[in-house]
Amino acid sequence: MFLVKARCTCGPHQPFQAVAIERRELGPTDVLIDIAYAGICHTDIHYAHDQKKGKTSFPLVPGHEIAGVVAAVGSKVTKFKVGDRAGMGVMCRSCQNCEHCRKGLEQYCTGKRVLTYNSIDYDGKLTYGGYSEKIVADENFVIRVPETIPLANAAPMFCAGITVYSPLRHWKAGPGKRVAILGFGGLGHLGVQIAKAMGAHVTVLDLSLAKQEDGYRLGADEYRATTDPGFFAEFTSAFDILISTVPANLDMDKYLSLLALDGVFVNISSSQDKPLSVTTANLLMNRRSISGTRSGGIAETQEMIDFCAKHGVMAQVEIVGADQIEECFERIGRGDVRFRFVIDGKSISGGPDGPLIGELANASA
């Protein structure tokens, strides 16, 4: 084991503080990544504030949108060498043996899927995420970052990017398809770019037109406010694919009415606090479907970042320091970010030393 600097929170709504965390020594197939940037995902807020009601293990080191440079490799590593640009997303391990893993669908692993943070690893220890200066990971869960995408812009793509890419690819967004992206934030702004690059006709649906200029700049063909009178009547049966990125509960019947024949409503948010409710007749109309999706497998994530590099797609980011994490959480709650915060790794590696995280855990026990 060796120690690295990190930032953690010790309880719901508690401030982040500097700590030292343990990283395992490199195994034969491990790589060590010097973290250059870590995206701040809405999921980080859910766990930091324990909005999942007891699902958070404190002290918590969030961060599953990671981009950096390989600093060392294990003896049997074949995919990476020292100096390579590398990224990590939501997962750091899976069983690799179940039917889904063998198909490259590790996100649906039926054995043991280990998340990059707030998860129990195969060694029985809690995982700590990217709000840190270094991370050790199995090479099979590390992604090569193309040279044409700056590391700061790449980091959010390993969660936000793949989470929108996977359903767009699965439901075959492309020429002749009409895609609606509901919510124009961290996920939505990437969904617009990716769907457009796939060749689809893309419409942004948001509560207001405040980000309309950005929407058109990033490739939207149309940008509409769902609060406008007559919107739902005008767009009845208008879309083949509707990707919902919004965490709020929706009037599902209204949004299902927007789907054309064989249209699909794809929910990619896990934040709704009430069960979905829908009139069954609305599903029968136009043979509509409601679906959901987890992020994406490792091979698909590599495919995503390569596709985005080819088409000039990348996350739009605001770079912040580690001392600004709580401020960023507050601004995300107000929708005051265009479009993703990323923490500069130098603000952690060059920041203050802190106590070993285990000491904090013992103190709070």
Mean pLDDT: 94
Elements, N to C (H/E): EEEHEEEHEEEHHEHEHEHEHEHEHEHEHH
Rg (C-alpha, Å): 20 Å
State the share of residues found in helices, binned by percent. Answer: 10-25%
In CATH terms, the superfamily of the largest domain is Medium-chain alcohol dehydrogenases, catalytic domain
List the uncertain runs. Answer: none
Structural class: alpha/beta
In summary, what is this structure?
The chain is α/β, with parallel strands linked by helices. The protein is built from 13 helices and 17 strands. It is globular and about 60 Å long.
Secondary-structure blueprint of this entry?
Blueprint: E1 2-8, E2 17-23, E3 30-39, H1 42-48, E4 66-73, E5 85-88, E6 91-93, H2 99-102, E7 114-115, E8 134-138, E9 143-144, H3 151-154, H4 160-170, E10 178-182, H5 188-197, E11 201-206, H6 212-217, E12 222-225, H7 231-234, E13 239-244, H8 252-256, E14 259-267, H9 280-284, E15 289-292, H10 298-311, E16 317-320, H11 325-333, E17 340-344, H12 346-349, H13 357-364
Parallel strand pairs: 10-11, 10-13, 11-12, 13-14, 14-15, 16-17
Antiparallel strand pairs: 1-2, 3-4, 3-8, 3-17, 4-5, 5-9, 6-7
What does this structure look like?
This protein is an alpha/beta fold and 365 residues long. The protein has two domains: 2-158 and 316-364, Quinone Oxidoreductase, Chain A, domain 1 (Alpha-Beta Complex), CATH 3.90.180; 160-292, Rossmann fold, CATH 3.40.50.720. It is 25% helix and 25% strand. The protein has helices spanning 42-48, 99-102, 151-154, 160-170, 188-197, 212-217, 231-234, 252-256, 280-284, 298-311, 325-333, 346-349, 357-364; strands at 2-8, 17-23, 30-39, 66-73, 85-88, 91-93, 114-115, 134-138, 143-144, 178-182, 201-206, 222-225, 239-244, 259-267, 289-292, 317-320, 340-344. The strands form four sheets. Strands 3, 4, 5, 8, 9, 16 and 17 form a seven-stranded mixed β-sheet that branches. It has a six-stranded parallel β-sheet with strand order 12-11-10-13-14-15. Strand 11 (201-206), helix 6 (212-217) and strand 12 (222-225) form a beta-alpha-beta unit. Helix 4 packs across helix 5 and helix 4 packs across helix 10. The longest helix has 14 residues, at 298-311. The relative contact order is 0.17.
